[in-house]
Structures are given as structure tokens and as C-alpha cells.
Write a structure and sequence with these properties.
This protein has about 120 residues and is mostly beta strands. It has one domain: Beta Barrel (Elongation Factor Tu (Ef-tu), domain 3). Helix content is about 5%, strand content about 40%. The chain is built from one helix and eight strands, in the order E-E-E-H-E-E-E-E-E. The longest helix has 4 residues.
């Protein structure tokens, strides 16, 4: 089985812990009502880890958080994975037109945005 992903925008600017996301005009109406939420899930494409070798990685040694033993890629936050999708919870600071200012995004400038979801607690 396979599918397609349409990117909805791009990480336009990163300054320290602050990022500006530019949502493409054809998806901008999807932002309606988003300002009612303080926290968002941002799914983005790890475009710098998108090659055959990195997508074939199934075992890693996740050194970032001090771990030194090998484990399966799905038990890690490694960008080297079959589908290089990143997920970060951010604080929404401002929406201006089709641009979102967020705090805490762990993505590089130029990273394509896959989706945005509000953090909801039931």
C-alpha cells in the first residue's frame, strides 16, 4: 500500500526557539478557528533525512538523550526512519494571515509542513 502527502506549508524562519510557519494560500482557510488553541502539534517532513539509505534504517543508537544501546528506530526520535516525519508540540503565539508564529518547534528552516493539529484534552 502507498499514499501521497501534500505539504501544506513550510518552516519559513527559525530564530532560536521561535519559528514562523508559512501556510500555502490554498490551505490558509484551514487555519480558521486555530487561534482558539494555545498548543499545537506540528507534523513536518525531515527533508534533510530523505534518502534511500536513511529511510532503510531500522536500528539506531540514540545518543541525543544519553542512550548508548542499539534499539529499533520506532523506539527513538531518530530522523532516519522509513517515513521521515517529525512531530513537535509547540506554543502558538500569533497568527497573521497565513503565517503562524510558534515557540518550541524542532525543525529546520525549509522543512515542509505535513499537518497541524490542536492539542485537545478531553
Amino acid at each position: 500500500m502507498s499514499g501521497t502527502i501534500d505539504f501544506i506549508g513550510i518552516v519559513e524562519k527559525v530564530e532560536g526557539d521561535y519559528s514562523t510557519l508559512a501556510i500555502y494560500p490554498e490551505y490558509a482557510s484551514g487555519l480558521a478557528g486555530l487561534d482558539a488553541y494555545k498548543r499545537l502539534y506540528i507534523l513536518y517532513w525531515l527533508h534533510e533525512a530523505d534518502n534511500h539509505a536513511q529511510r532503510a534504517t531500522l536500528r539506531v543508537i540514540p545518543r541525543r538523550h544519553g542512550a548508548t544501546e542499539e534499539r529499533g528506530v520506532f523506539a527513538s526520535h531518530s530522523p532516519h526512519r522509513p517515513n521521515p516525519i517529525g512531530l513537535t508540540t509547540v506554543d502558538l503565539l500569533n497568527i497573521e494571515g497565513n503565517r503562524l508564529l510558534v515557540y518550541g518547534l524542532d525543525a529546520f528552516e525549509g522543512s515542509p509542513i505535513v499537518d497541524i493539529k490542536p492539542e485537545v484534552h478531553d
